[in-house]
Amino acid sequence: MTGEHLDATIARRVRRLETLLEEKGLITGERVDEAIDAFLASSTPANGARVVARAWTDEAFRSRLLADGTAAVRELGYMEGSYQRLRVVENTADTHNVVVCTLCSCYPLRLLGPSPSWYKSEAYRSRVVREPRSVLREFGLELPDTVAVTVWDSSAESRYMVLPRRPEGTEGLAEEELAALVTRNALIGTAAL
Prior knowledge:
With 193 residues, the chain is α/β, with parallel strands linked by helices. It is built from 11 helices and 4 strands.
């Protein structure tokens, strides 16, 4: 089943469930819209940036984040009620990580906000797996040949987020200032800081 057909099937099921709940008087369409709007309003790349800044300033948190991303971000109040597993992968001097969902556009929405259109494009989804360096170069990220590129494929059950390398010269910055340096593309791995 192609992604478009799967999306249409899921959309029909969701609409049918909404209709049944409304018919039984359990929820109104307005309340569903309010819940979606509230969820999206609290889903932003600033959340992921705060997670990264904490990891850069708190070694114990960083260790927990890399061991169990879901539990660590819940400590900060993110991913409550989420059933997906979050895996955080760390960029190092020798390894650069990039995230994709080859089947559709699975993505840690609560930490990164709505996914950018390029992330959902078939071109990105297919090419980043086959030729990650070329795709990263198109984003303006030129990596030395000595740096290995690892591509992580998200799924309905598991989401990935990149822990970028902390920029040099930021040792004196507070967590809030560090968070301001982190971009959504760095959290996906298509940019460095």
